Amino acid sequence: MAFQVKIHQIRAFVEVARQGSIRGASRMLNMSQPALSKSIQELEEGLAAQLFFRRSKGVTLTDAGESFYQHASLILEELRAAQEDIRQRQGQLAGQINIGMGASISRSLMPAVISRFHQQHPQVKVRIMEGQLVSMINELRQGELDFTINTYYQGPYDHEFTFEKLLEKQFAIFCRPGHPAIGARSIKQLLDYSWTMPTPHGSYYKQLSELLDDQAQTPQVGVVCETFSACISLVAKSDFLSILPEEMGCDPLHGQGLVMLPVSEILPKAAYYLIQRRDSRQTPLTPSLITQFRRECGYLQS
Q1: Where in the chain is the domain with CATH 1.10.10.10?
Q2: d(Cα 248, Cα 260) in Å, to the nearest integer?
Q3: CATH class (in words) of the domain with range 7-71
Q4: 108 burial type by CB count under 10 A (0-12 exposed, 13-18 middle, 19+ buried)
Q5: pLDDT single digits (tens) 224-264
Q6: Of 19, 35, 40, 59, which has fewest CB within 10 angstroms of its CB?
Q7: Distances from the Cα of 236 to the Cα of 108, 176, 243, 253, angstroms
Q8: Residues 172 and 243: beta-carbon distance below 8 Å
Q9: Which residues lie closer than 8 Å to 77 by C-beta, 6 or more apart?
Q10: pTM of the model
C-alpha cells in the first residue's frame, strides 16, 4: 500500500521548517520533542527522502524538503481557509484574512477600508504585511496571503497570479526642507546629489530605473532601503534625494519633513493591482474586503 501522508505529520514538518529546530517547533505545537521527532522520521521514511539536514544548532531543509515545504504549507493554508469558509457560511463570521500592501497603499486607502471592515466584522482578524510584491511572492504562492495590492511590472508571474488594476499614483522627487537642491528644475541638475531608493527589485522602481537609463538620467543610488519608512526618514533627515509617491508631501506623519522638487520631466505613474493566486479559494468574507478596497480606490481616483 502506498504511503499516506497524515495531517499531523504535515503540521509537524511545516512547524519544524519554520522554527528551524525540533525544540522550537515542539513549543509552538505543544508536543514533546520525542513525539515530534517520531512524526518527522515517519514522514521521511514514508517519502523515502531526507527532508532536513540535522545540525548541532538546529535543522535546515534539504532540496527535497524545500520542495515538500511548498506543497505542505499550501495544504495547511487551504485547510485553514476551508474551515473558515464553513464557519462563515454557517453564520460564524470569524476567522482571519491575510493581506499584503504596498507601503503607499498602507498609508492612503488601507486605514479607511480596514477600519470600516473591522466595524462590520469585529470577530474577523486581519493580518497585514507591508512591502513590495517581490517580498510577498512566496507567501502568495503558499496561500499565506489571500491577496496583495501592489505595483507590478513585466515579471515572470503572469501564469501564477491574476492582476486587476485598481488605481494609479503619481510619483515625484523629494528632499528635506532647506536642501541645496531646492530650485532645481530638471533631473539633470540633481544627478550629482546623493540618492536613496527602495529596493530596485520592486516593480515600479524597476520600471523607473529602465526609463531613466534610456534617457541617460540615472541617479547614483548610494543607499538602497528595504523599507519605505527607512527611505523617507533618510530623505527627511539628511541630504539624500529620493523618488516617492507624490502624496507623501501631504502625509500627516512625514509631509512636513519633505519638499517636492517640481522638475520639468514627468515621472511615470505607478499602477497598483489587486494580485491573487489563480487557483485561490476565497472564504466568503474575503470578497467583501476586496470590494471595499475597490470602492475606496474609486473614491481616490474620482
Answers
A1: 7-71
A2: 9
A3: mainly alpha
A4: buried
A5: 988 888 999 999 999 999 999 998 887 767 667 899 999 99
A6: 35
A7: 19, 5, 13, 11
A8: yes
A9: 142, 143, 144
A10: 0.71
pLDDT at 148 over 70: yes
Q: 113 Cβ partners below 8 Å, 6+ apart?
A: 289, 292, 293, 296
DSSP-assigned letter for residue 269: P
Residues of the chain with CATH 3.40.190.10: 99-168+271-301, 171-268
CA distance 132 to 146: 16
171-268: in CATH 3.40.50.300:
no
285/72 Cα distance (integer angstroms): 25
Grid look-up 527535497 returns 64
User: Taking the CB of residue 50, how many other CB atoms lie within 10 A of it?
Assistant: 13
DSSP state of 267: P
Report whether 128 contacts 150 (CB < 8 A): no
Among residues 173, 186, 185, 192, the alpha carbon closest in space to that of 235 is found at 173
3-state secondary structure of 175: strand
Q: What phi, psi does 98 have (nearest 5°)?
A: -110, 120
- Looking at residue 85, its pLDDT comes to 74
CATH class of 99-168+271-301: alpha beta
Query: 149: which strand partners?
Result: 101, 274
SS3 content of the chain, % helix, strand, coil (to 5): 45, 20, 35
